[in-house]
Amino acid sequence: MAQATNFRGIVLSNRHLSFSNTIEGFDKLQCWIEGIQQKHRLNRVIIGMEPTGHYWWNLANWLTNKDSNVVLVNPATTKRNKENRDNSPSKSDPKDALVIANIVSRGYYYEHTRQAQEFQRLRTLMSDREFWVAYSVRLQNRIIRWLDIRFPEYTSVFKDWTCKRSMATLKELPLPQDLASRSITEMITT
Fold first, then answer.
1. What's the rounded Cα separation, in Å, for the pair 116 and 122?
2. CA distance 127 to 130
3. Phi, psi dihedrals of residue 107, rounded to the nearest 5°
4. CB count, 10 Å around CB of 171?
5. How would you write the pLDDT of the chain (190 residues) with one tens digit per residue?
6. Cβ atoms within 10 A of the Cβ of 174, count?
7. In sequence order, what DSSP letters do the residues of the chain get, joined into one string?
8. Which of 49, 32, 164 is nearest to 99 (CA)?
9. What is the pTM of this model?
10. Contact, 187 vs 157, CB < 8 A?
11. Spatial separation of the C-alpha atoms in residues 116 and 178, rounded to whole Å
12. Please, are residues 2 and 49 in contact by the beta-carbon 8 Å criterion?
């Protein structure tokens, strides 16, 4: 969504603009901006957006490549100003677009600087690594929970359930019933 205001915060468009996060959508936004510039005889335009999620990234980089002045608005600032606007924290894309436009018109933003390709890759790799580490911890916690519920004696035999012998035992004997059905001699030879 997009909305346009002047430097005083007065809305310049009759309606907000809906556009997709594609090249076609970006072209539609650019035409809309150029139309507003012509209609209101504006020389400069500041394009503000909230850097939440990943949706803003492609648009910000595309606009920066077109030498547009792109700025970012802190999501916390948007939230506070949204409540001040109509005394309601309700969320809608048109309302958010107008709130962001007003925040930019008052100067509460910071400049977007496009990062080098290597830095973007490093940032993506770090984000992916954080995801997989967190996912791994969640899985380990689920296994520990399962062992505590189904096989409470397991930790008295193996202090570390991830060691090779423990993993081999779990693969061969995943449940206490499997262990109970074998003799001591069978256990030693297994």
1. 10
2. 5
3. 90, 10
4. 8
5. 898 888 888 888 888 899 999 999 999 999 999 999 999 998 999 999 998 888 888 899 899 999 999 999 998 888 888 777 666 666 677 888 888 998 999 999 999 887 777 887 888 899 999 999 999 999 999 999 998 998 888 888 888 999 998 998 888 888 878 878 888 787 777 6
6. 13
7. -B--B-TT--B--SS-B---SSHHHHHHHHHHHHHHHHHHT-S--EEEE---TTHHHHHHHHHHHTT-EEEE--HHHHHHHHHHHHS-----HHHHHHHHHHHHHTT--EE--PPPHHHHHHHHHHHHHHHHHHHHHHHHHHHHHHHHHH-TTHHHH-S-TTSHHHHHHHHH--SHHHHHTS-HHHHHH-
8. 49
9. 0.61
10. no
11. 56
12. no
Q: Which two tokens stand for residue 161?
A: 């359930």
